Amino acid sequence: MAKKNAFYAQSGGVTAVINASACGVIETARKHKDKIGKVYAGRNGIIGALTEDLIDTSKESAKAIAALRHTPSGAFGSCRYKMKSLEANKREYDRLIEVFAAHNIGYFFYNGGGDSADTCLKVSQLSQATGYPIQAIHVPKTVDNDLPITDNCPGFGSVAKYIAVSTREASFDVASMSKTSTKVFVLEVMGRHAGWIAAAGGLAASADCDLPIVILFPEVAFDQAAFLAKVKEKVEKYGYVSIVVSEGVHDASGKFLADQGLKDAFGHAQLGGVAPVIANLVRENLGYKYHWAVADYLQRAARHIASQSDVEQAYAMGKAAVKLALAGKNSVMPTVVRTSSKPYRWKVGEADLSRVANVEKMMPKNFITRDGFGITAKCREYLEPLIKGEDYPPYGKDGMPKYVQLKNVAVKKKLNDFEVK
User: Fold this and answer.
1) pLDDT value at position 88?
2) 251 part of the active site
């Protein structure tokens, strides 16, 4: 029996280190050529599998694949597409089997967050439902850090580092101008339901760097009066304040402050623009001059300031995914298991996808201060190891980082066209 090929794809919002996971998958698979044939990447995620738009990674040199480790975003293209159940959309699953069979694919590696874990779980069930042999392994990735079981998610540590550093630097700037100009800086960060990224802003202040930081978490219902009182308190004490606000902040009724009435591809509320909402509240009620910014794509694309531990864990998750597949596993996800915080130590574990898919990990109550506007010592102990260490990309003579752009050679199609509805 011929050895099986592997399919790898990236899904959802990309990160500064998702390509490091891709590097881990491809390099590890290449070391096991006796058991794994070629690694085909899906162009634009699962869409590439459905449309038979596959990329032959064997056409890339070892040097190019290695360079993925320090290149941000998704080298093969990502997508936001959540497959329905087998019963609701049998047509798509039949198509997947058709494509897998045509290209002798027996391993399925899907690199993404919660919705991607759900897709991977459904693909893993194809073996039982159809009899086609496929092993589906989810490779964790999400800047939101909201996957359960795993201690943290690859992608988060680097975003956390970017937000912590940016908040500290911006605070120094505002402090310089606060006497006669700006007194309030508002930074909007990602995080729909979980405030992990916003919490990272709290790391800007430390025992040796006293800064006034106010954090607005999705886990804490927004109380306008309490918020304004806290801002006034900080400005009166320090002369200025930096506010880190999660895009998912909502009022007591559950309505997002940034809800524009639009939906994304997954049916979630399309958020954006909470920073100016908060800034205007400050101006109208307190009269302070302000500036606001939205970190947006910058926070998840900032490979130049990636966390070393994040890069190492992202690669390790890709490598572990292949090892799990070779061990005969199916419907599982490699995880990061923290064994010690001081000193920071971790190892690779695994979790069943049935315990991961469609489950969000929120900030624990004991990670948020009683007033709801800061992080506790316990939260700091959890976060600090995740942003430690630097893993700078190589820089060229022009002063710019050297990132790889793959050839992404397409695999010759064998089937008829398929329309994704």
Assistant:
1) 85
2) no
